[in-house]
Design brief:
By secondary structure, the chain is an all-alpha fold. The longest helix has 15 residues. It is extended, with a radius of gyration of 18 Å.
Length: 82
């Protein structure tokens, strides 16, 4: 039996119509990097998290790099995980 890594069809079944509408709007306006849709996401995600701000990044690596930069972690510093 083959088990899929992720089943986006099943995971999005209930909201498929809304996702398609939003995806088409993004494609039509080319606002997938920055723009009003990303600003709305950041504002709503910050609200959801109980934070004043949220910043969308292109990847988890970007998010980690931004977090380290904010904390002043840079070249020559060590990070120890326990």
């Amino acid at each position: 039996m083959k088990v899929p890594f992720v089943d986006l069809g099943a995971a999005t079944e209930e909201i498929r119509g809304e996702l398609n509408l939003r995806w088409n709007k993004i494609l039509d306006n080319s606002n997938f990097i920055g723009g009003p849709i990303v600003e709305i996401f950041e504002r709503e995600f910050a609200q959801y998290c109980g934070s004043r701000f949220a910043v969308a990044t292109g990847s988890g690596t970007d998010a980690l790099r931004l977090a380290m930069q904010v904390l002043g972690i840079g070249s020559g510093d060590s990070i120890v995980s326990v």
